[in-house]
TrEMBL record:
The keyword Lipid metabolism appears for this protein: no
Descriptive protein name: histidine kinase
EC number: 2.7.13.3
Gene3D superfamilies documented for this protein: 1.10.287.130, 2.10.70.100, 6.10.250.2580, Histidine kinase-like ATPase, C-terminal domain (3.30.565.10), PAS domain (3.30.450.20)
Ranges where the PAS domain occurs: 15-86
Record keywords, A-Z: ATP-binding, Kinase, Nucleotide-binding, Phosphoprotein, Transferase, Two-component regulatory system
A molecular function (GO) term: phosphorelay sensor kinase activity
Organism whose genome encodes this protein: Methylobacterium variabile
Domain PAC: 89-141
Chain ranges of the Histidine kinase domain: 161-376
Reaction equations catalysed: ATP + protein L-histidine = ADP + protein N-phospho-L-histidine
InterPro entries in alphabetical order: HATPase_C_sf, HATPase_dom, His_kinase_dom, HisK_dim/P_dom, HisK_dim/P_sf, PAS, PAS-assoc_C, PAS-like_dom_sf
First-level EC class: transferase
Length: 384
Protein backbone atom coordinates (compact mmCIF):
# COMPACT_ATOMS: atom_id res chain seq x y z
CA UNK A 1 0.00 0.00 0.00
CA UNK A 2 1.41 3.39 -0.99
CA UNK A 3 1.17 6.67 0.85
CA UNK A 4 -1.32 9.19 -0.59
CA UNK A 5 0.18 11.46 -3.24
CA UNK A 6 3.17 9.23 -4.14
CA UNK A 7 3.98 7.51 -7.39
CA UNK A 8 3.93 3.69 -6.94
CA UNK A 9 6.62 3.42 -9.60
CA UNK A 10 9.12 5.75 -7.92
CA UNK A 11 10.54 6.72 -4.58
CA UNK A 12 7.75 9.24 -3.78
CA UNK A 13 9.87 12.32 -4.52
CA UNK A 14 8.81 14.62 -7.37
CA UNK A 15 11.46 15.38 -9.94
CA UNK A 16 11.96 18.96 -11.13
CA UNK A 17 10.12 18.13 -14.34
CA UNK A 18 7.21 16.57 -12.47
CA UNK A 19 6.98 19.59 -10.18
CA UNK A 20 6.90 21.97 -13.16
CA UNK A 21 4.22 19.84 -14.80
CA UNK A 22 2.13 19.74 -11.63
CA UNK A 23 2.27 23.52 -11.18
CA UNK A 24 1.38 24.01 -14.83
CA UNK A 25 -1.58 21.63 -14.60
CA UNK A 26 -3.08 23.47 -11.61
CA UNK A 27 -2.63 26.88 -13.25
CA UNK A 28 0.30 28.20 -11.22
CA UNK A 29 2.63 30.30 -13.34
CA UNK A 30 6.29 30.24 -12.30
CA UNK A 31 8.79 32.79 -13.53
CA UNK A 32 12.40 33.78 -13.02
CA UNK A 33 14.08 37.11 -13.79
CA UNK A 34 17.83 37.33 -14.42
CA UNK A 35 18.42 40.80 -12.98
CA UNK A 36 21.72 41.43 -14.81
CA UNK A 37 20.44 40.32 -18.23
CA UNK A 38 16.86 41.55 -17.77
CA UNK A 39 15.56 38.26 -19.19
CA UNK A 40 12.45 36.50 -17.88
CA UNK A 41 11.89 32.75 -18.07
CA UNK A 42 8.21 31.86 -17.63
CA UNK A 43 6.25 28.61 -17.52
CA UNK A 44 3.51 27.72 -20.03
CA UNK A 45 0.84 28.62 -17.46
CA UNK A 46 1.94 32.25 -17.73
CA UNK A 47 1.03 32.28 -21.40
CA UNK A 48 -2.49 31.11 -20.55
CA UNK A 49 -2.92 33.63 -17.71
CA UNK A 50 -1.71 36.59 -19.78
CA UNK A 51 -3.29 35.39 -23.03
CA UNK A 52 -0.12 35.77 -25.11
CA UNK A 53 2.60 33.44 -26.46
CA UNK A 54 5.54 32.75 -24.14
CA UNK A 55 7.93 34.68 -26.38
CA UNK A 56 5.98 37.85 -25.48
CA UNK A 57 6.80 37.34 -21.79
CA UNK A 58 10.58 37.33 -22.08
CA UNK A 59 11.30 40.77 -20.54
CA UNK A 60 10.08 42.84 -17.62
CA UNK A 61 8.86 45.56 -20.03
CA UNK A 62 6.77 43.09 -22.06
CA UNK A 63 5.02 41.80 -18.95
CA UNK A 64 4.52 45.32 -17.60
CA UNK A 65 2.80 46.36 -20.84
CA UNK A 66 0.06 43.77 -20.19
CA UNK A 67 -0.66 45.02 -16.65
CA UNK A 68 -3.76 47.22 -16.39
CA UNK A 69 -2.76 50.92 -16.66
CA UNK A 70 -4.35 51.71 -13.28
CA UNK A 71 -2.32 48.96 -11.57
CA UNK A 72 0.95 49.31 -13.47
CA UNK A 73 2.62 51.85 -11.19
CA UNK A 74 1.81 49.92 -8.00
CA UNK A 75 3.00 46.63 -9.52
CA UNK A 76 6.28 48.16 -10.70
CA UNK A 77 6.86 49.90 -7.35
CA UNK A 78 6.33 46.64 -5.43
CA UNK A 79 8.91 44.83 -7.55
CA UNK A 80 11.49 47.64 -7.56
CA UNK A 81 11.13 48.10 -3.80
CA UNK A 82 11.86 44.40 -3.25
CA UNK A 83 14.84 44.53 -5.60
CA UNK A 84 16.31 47.39 -3.56
CA UNK A 85 15.51 46.13 -0.06
CA UNK A 86 15.44 42.37 -0.60
CA UNK A 87 12.84 39.96 0.72
CA UNK A 88 9.51 39.13 -0.90
CA UNK A 89 6.48 40.90 -2.33
CA UNK A 90 2.83 40.11 -3.02
CA UNK A 91 0.57 42.24 -5.22
CA UNK A 92 -2.93 41.82 -6.65
CA UNK A 93 -3.42 43.42 -10.05
CA UNK A 94 -5.29 43.22 -13.32
CA UNK A 95 -3.96 42.34 -16.76
CA UNK A 96 -5.53 43.26 -20.08
CA UNK A 97 -5.32 40.43 -22.57
CA UNK A 98 -5.01 41.15 -26.32
CA UNK A 99 -8.71 40.34 -26.81
CA UNK A 100 -9.64 43.05 -24.26
CA UNK A 101 -10.56 40.68 -21.44
CA UNK A 102 -9.52 41.97 -18.00
CA UNK A 103 -8.36 39.33 -15.50
CA UNK A 104 -7.27 39.53 -11.86
CA UNK A 105 -3.92 37.96 -10.89
CA UNK A 106 -1.93 37.63 -7.68
CA UNK A 107 1.83 37.98 -8.15
CA UNK A 108 4.35 36.83 -5.56
CA UNK A 109 8.11 37.02 -5.81
CA UNK A 110 11.35 36.79 -3.83
CA UNK A 111 14.78 38.26 -4.52
CA UNK A 112 17.87 36.04 -4.41
CA UNK A 113 21.15 37.75 -3.58
CA UNK A 114 24.64 37.07 -4.92
CA UNK A 115 27.66 36.71 -2.62
CA UNK A 116 28.22 40.45 -3.09
CA UNK A 117 24.82 41.14 -1.54
CA UNK A 118 23.33 42.48 -4.78
CA UNK A 119 20.14 41.11 -6.30
CA UNK A 120 20.96 38.56 -8.97
CA UNK A 121 17.72 36.65 -9.54
CA UNK A 122 14.04 37.21 -8.92
CA UNK A 123 11.72 34.19 -8.76
CA UNK A 124 8.01 33.99 -8.16
CA UNK A 125 4.56 32.70 -8.99
CA UNK A 126 1.39 34.15 -10.48
CA UNK A 127 -2.11 32.72 -10.00
CA UNK A 128 -5.57 33.76 -11.14
CA UNK A 129 -7.83 35.32 -8.49
CA UNK A 130 -10.77 36.07 -10.79
CA UNK A 131 -13.13 33.87 -8.78
CA UNK A 132 -11.94 35.42 -5.52
CA UNK A 133 -12.63 38.91 -6.89
CA UNK A 134 -16.09 37.90 -8.14
CA UNK A 135 -16.99 36.50 -4.72
CA UNK A 136 -15.63 39.63 -3.02
CA UNK A 137 -17.66 41.89 -5.32
CA UNK A 138 -20.79 39.83 -4.68
CA UNK A 139 -20.25 40.01 -0.92
CA UNK A 140 -19.95 43.79 -1.16
CA UNK A 141 -23.14 43.90 -3.21
CA UNK A 142 -25.00 41.79 -0.64
CA UNK A 143 -23.63 43.94 2.19
CA UNK A 144 -24.94 47.04 0.43
CA UNK A 145 -28.35 45.39 0.02
CA UNK A 146 -28.42 44.48 3.71
CA UNK A 147 -27.51 48.03 4.72
CA UNK A 148 -30.31 49.40 2.53
CA UNK A 149 -32.88 46.91 3.82
CA UNK A 150 -31.88 47.82 7.36
CA UNK A 151 -32.66 51.49 6.64
CA UNK A 152 -36.03 50.57 5.15
CA UNK A 153 -36.79 48.44 8.21
CA UNK A 154 -35.94 51.34 10.52
CA UNK A 155 -38.25 53.64 8.58
CA UNK A 156 -41.03 51.06 8.73
CA UNK A 157 -40.72 50.86 12.50
CA UNK A 158 -40.87 54.67 12.77
CA UNK A 159 -43.63 55.13 10.17
CA UNK A 160 -46.45 56.10 12.54
CA UNK A 161 -44.42 58.69 14.46
CA UNK A 162 -42.99 60.13 11.24
CA UNK A 163 -46.49 60.39 9.76
CA UNK A 164 -47.55 62.31 12.86
CA UNK A 165 -44.54 64.60 12.54
CA UNK A 166 -45.39 65.30 8.89
CA UNK A 167 -49.07 65.90 9.66
CA UNK A 168 -48.22 68.77 12.01
CA UNK A 169 -46.92 71.21 9.36
CA UNK A 170 -49.54 70.03 6.87
CA UNK A 171 -52.30 70.67 9.40
CA UNK A 172 -50.84 74.09 10.19
CA UNK A 173 -50.75 74.93 6.47
CA UNK A 174 -54.43 73.98 6.16
CA UNK A 175 -55.44 76.15 9.12
CA UNK A 176 -53.36 79.12 7.98
CA UNK A 177 -54.76 79.03 4.44
CA UNK A 178 -58.35 78.84 5.73
CA UNK A 179 -57.67 81.85 7.94
CA UNK A 180 -56.10 83.69 5.01
CA UNK A 181 -59.21 83.09 2.89
CA UNK A 182 -61.40 84.59 5.61
CA UNK A 183 -59.13 87.63 5.90
CA UNK A 184 -59.16 88.23 2.16
CA UNK A 185 -62.92 87.82 1.87
CA UNK A 186 -63.23 91.41 3.10
CA UNK A 187 -59.88 92.97 2.33
CA UNK A 188 -58.64 96.23 3.76
CA UNK A 189 -55.18 97.54 4.64
CA UNK A 190 -55.04 95.78 8.00
CA UNK A 191 -56.38 92.42 6.82
CA UNK A 192 -54.03 92.34 3.82
CA UNK A 193 -51.03 92.98 6.11
CA UNK A 194 -52.21 90.20 8.42
CA UNK A 195 -52.75 87.89 5.44
CA UNK A 196 -49.14 88.48 4.34
CA UNK A 197 -47.93 87.45 7.80
CA UNK A 198 -50.10 84.34 7.66
CA UNK A 199 -48.72 83.43 4.21
CA UNK A 200 -45.19 83.76 5.60
CA UNK A 201 -46.13 81.20 8.25
CA UNK A 202 -47.56 78.94 5.53
CA UNK A 203 -44.22 79.11 3.73
CA UNK A 204 -42.36 78.24 6.95
CA UNK A 205 -44.54 75.19 7.55
CA UNK A 206 -44.21 74.08 3.92
CA UNK A 207 -40.43 74.34 4.27
CA UNK A 208 -40.58 72.29 7.46
CA UNK A 209 -42.62 69.57 5.73
CA UNK A 210 -40.19 69.61 2.81
CA UNK A 211 -37.23 69.12 5.14
CA UNK A 212 -38.91 66.10 6.75
CA UNK A 213 -39.60 64.57 3.33
CA UNK A 214 -36.05 65.32 2.13
CA UNK A 215 -34.53 63.58 5.14
CA UNK A 216 -36.79 60.57 4.64
CA UNK A 217 -36.06 60.37 0.92
CA UNK A 218 -32.30 60.65 1.40
CA UNK A 219 -32.30 58.10 4.21
CA UNK A 220 -34.09 55.35 2.29
CA UNK A 221 -32.50 56.05 -1.10
CA UNK A 222 -30.36 53.35 -2.65
CA UNK A 223 -27.16 54.71 -4.13
CA UNK A 224 -23.46 54.14 -4.60
CA UNK A 225 -21.27 54.68 -1.56
CA UNK A 226 -19.87 58.18 -1.92
CA UNK A 227 -17.65 59.74 0.72
CA UNK A 228 -17.73 63.51 1.09
CA UNK A 229 -16.64 66.05 3.64
CA UNK A 230 -19.65 66.38 5.96
CA UNK A 231 -20.02 68.69 9.01
CA UNK A 232 -20.46 66.59 12.16
CA UNK A 233 -23.08 69.01 13.49
CA UNK A 234 -25.20 68.51 10.36
CA UNK A 235 -24.94 64.72 10.58
CA UNK A 236 -26.16 64.80 14.19
CA UNK A 237 -28.92 67.31 13.39
CA UNK A 238 -30.35 65.23 10.54
CA UNK A 239 -30.12 61.98 12.53
CA UNK A 240 -31.93 63.56 15.49
CA UNK A 241 -34.63 64.94 13.18
CA UNK A 242 -35.46 61.36 12.18
CA UNK A 243 -34.72 59.36 15.32
CA UNK A 244 -36.09 61.76 17.96
CA UNK A 245 -39.57 62.07 16.44
CA UNK A 246 -42.11 61.54 19.24
CA UNK A 247 -39.46 61.66 21.99
CA UNK A 248 -41.02 64.68 23.70
CA UNK A 249 -44.26 62.79 24.29
CA UNK A 250 -42.20 60.02 25.91
CA UNK A 251 -40.57 62.47 28.30
CA UNK A 252 -37.06 62.03 26.89
CA UNK A 253 -34.67 64.91 27.54
CA UNK A 254 -32.01 65.38 24.86
CA UNK A 255 -28.61 66.84 25.72
CA UNK A 256 -26.23 67.84 22.92
CA UNK A 257 -22.57 68.75 23.49
CA UNK A 258 -20.41 69.55 20.45
CA UNK A 259 -16.75 70.41 20.97
CA UNK A 260 -15.89 73.60 19.06
CA UNK A 261 -12.81 71.90 17.62
CA UNK A 262 -14.97 69.30 15.87
CA UNK A 263 -15.44 70.23 12.23
CA UNK A 264 -16.04 67.73 9.45
CA UNK A 265 -15.52 64.06 8.68
CA UNK A 266 -14.95 62.22 5.40
CA UNK A 267 -17.92 59.85 5.21
CA UNK A 268 -20.89 58.57 3.26
CA UNK A 269 -23.55 60.81 4.82
CA UNK A 270 -26.50 58.41 4.59
CA UNK A 271 -24.57 55.46 6.01
CA UNK A 272 -23.29 57.43 9.01
CA UNK A 273 -26.78 58.81 9.62
CA UNK A 274 -27.93 55.19 9.60
CA UNK A 275 -25.52 54.43 12.46
CA UNK A 276 -26.62 57.47 14.46
CA UNK A 277 -30.33 56.83 13.90
CA UNK A 278 -29.87 53.24 15.05
CA UNK A 279 -27.95 54.26 18.18
CA UNK A 280 -30.43 57.01 19.10
CA UNK A 281 -33.44 54.74 18.62
CA UNK A 282 -31.79 52.00 20.68
CA UNK A 283 -31.11 54.51 23.47
CA UNK A 284 -34.75 55.64 23.43
CA UNK A 285 -36.04 52.09 23.59
CA UNK A 286 -33.66 51.24 26.46
CA UNK A 287 -35.25 54.00 28.58
CA UNK A 288 -38.90 53.31 27.75
CA UNK A 289 -39.71 51.73 31.13
CA UNK A 290 -37.19 53.53 33.32
CA UNK A 291 -37.75 56.43 35.73
CA UNK A 292 -34.92 58.50 34.19
CA UNK A 293 -34.99 59.30 30.48
CA UNK A 294 -31.95 61.33 29.53
CA UNK A 295 -30.29 60.91 26.14
CA UNK A 296 -26.90 62.51 25.54
CA UNK A 297 -25.01 63.05 22.29
CA UNK A 298 -21.42 64.29 22.57
CA UNK A 299 -18.93 64.99 19.79
CA UNK A 300 -15.24 65.60 20.45
CA UNK A 301 -11.79 65.21 18.95
CA UNK A 302 -10.03 62.17 20.38
CA UNK A 303 -7.00 62.61 18.10
CA UNK A 304 -5.98 65.25 15.55
CA UNK A 305 -7.38 63.04 12.80
CA UNK A 306 -10.25 61.31 14.62
CA UNK A 307 -13.70 62.46 15.79
CA UNK A 308 -15.78 60.60 18.37
CA UNK A 309 -19.57 60.80 18.57
CA UNK A 310 -20.94 59.28 21.79
CA UNK A 311 -24.61 58.38 22.33
CA UNK A 312 -25.49 57.66 25.96
CA UNK A 313 -28.69 56.74 27.79
CA UNK A 314 -29.93 56.29 31.36
CA UNK A 315 -31.52 52.89 30.77
CA UNK A 316 -30.79 49.65 32.65
CA UNK A 317 -27.46 49.14 30.88
CA UNK A 318 -26.05 46.08 29.13
CA UNK A 319 -24.98 42.89 30.88
CA UNK A 320 -21.24 42.20 30.59
CA UNK A 321 -21.75 38.85 28.85
CA UNK A 322 -24.06 40.48 26.29
CA UNK A 323 -21.79 43.49 25.71
CA UNK A 324 -18.98 41.20 24.56
CA UNK A 325 -21.18 39.75 21.80
CA UNK A 326 -23.42 42.74 21.07
CA UNK A 327 -21.92 43.50 17.64
CA UNK A 328 -22.12 39.90 16.43
CA UNK A 329 -24.93 39.14 13.96
CA UNK A 330 -28.21 37.91 15.49
CA UNK A 331 -27.31 38.98 19.05
CA UNK A 332 -29.99 41.30 20.46
CA UNK A 333 -31.37 42.55 23.76
CA UNK A 334 -34.78 43.36 22.25
CA UNK A 335 -37.72 40.94 22.38
CA UNK A 336 -38.42 39.99 18.77
CA UNK A 337 -35.34 41.81 17.48
CA UNK A 338 -33.28 40.32 14.65
CA UNK A 339 -29.93 41.45 16.02
CA UNK A 340 -28.40 42.73 12.78
CA UNK A 341 -28.59 46.51 13.32
CA UNK A 342 -25.47 46.94 15.47
CA UNK A 343 -23.52 44.41 13.41
CA UNK A 344 -24.24 46.48 10.29
CA UNK A 345 -23.35 49.69 12.13
CA UNK A 346 -19.94 48.33 13.13
CA UNK A 347 -19.29 47.13 9.58
CA UNK A 348 -20.10 50.61 8.24
CA UNK A 349 -17.89 52.32 10.82
CA UNK A 350 -14.92 50.06 10.05
CA UNK A 351 -15.39 50.59 6.31
CA UNK A 352 -14.96 54.31 7.05
CA UNK A 353 -11.73 53.71 8.97
CA UNK A 354 -13.41 54.14 12.35
CA UNK A 355 -14.73 52.04 15.21
CA UNK A 356 -17.98 51.45 17.10
CA UNK A 357 -17.72 50.34 20.73
CA UNK A 358 -19.96 50.20 23.79
CA UNK A 359 -19.33 50.67 27.49
CA UNK A 360 -21.53 50.52 30.58
CA UNK A 361 -22.07 53.78 32.44
CA UNK A 362 -21.21 53.90 36.12
CA UNK A 363 -24.57 55.48 36.98
CA UNK A 364 -26.56 53.09 34.79
CA UNK A 365 -27.23 52.97 31.10
CA UNK A 366 -24.80 52.56 28.23
CA UNK A 367 -22.66 54.70 25.94
CA UNK A 368 -21.92 53.82 22.32
CA UNK A 369 -18.81 55.50 20.93
CA UNK A 370 -18.45 55.98 17.17
CA UNK A 371 -15.12 57.20 15.82
CA UNK A 372 -14.69 58.60 12.31
CA UNK A 373 -11.74 60.12 10.43
CA UNK A 374 -11.62 63.91 10.78
CA UNK A 375 -10.71 66.01 7.77
CA UNK A 376 -10.15 69.56 6.66
CA UNK A 377 -13.20 71.39 5.33
CA UNK A 378 -12.06 70.95 1.76
CA UNK A 379 -14.04 68.91 -0.72
CA UNK A 380 -12.01 65.83 -1.74
CA UNK A 381 -12.27 63.81 -4.87
CA UNK A 382 -15.34 61.66 -4.57
CA UNK A 383 -14.93 57.95 -4.20
CA UNK A 384 -16.54 54.86 -2.81
Amino acid sequence: MTAPGTDPGGDGVLTAGELRQTLDEVGVCTWSLDVAEGQVTASPACARLFGVPLDRLSTFAEIQALVHPDDRRGWEDAIQRTLRAGGAYEFDHRVVRPDGEVCWLRSRGRVHLAASGRACRYRGTIVSIDEHQRIHARLQELQSELVHVSRLSAMGEMASTLAHELNQPLGAITNYTKGCRRLLAHPDTDTVATAVEVLDKVAEQALRAGQIIRRLRDFVARGETEKRVEPVARLIEDACALAMVGSREQGIALRLALDKRVGSVLVDRVQVQQILVNLIRNAREAMMHGPRRGLGIDARLVAPDMVEIAVSDTGPGIAAEVAERLFQPFVTTKPGGMGVGLSICRTISEAHGGRLEVERNGSGGATFRLTLPATQDEEPAHGG
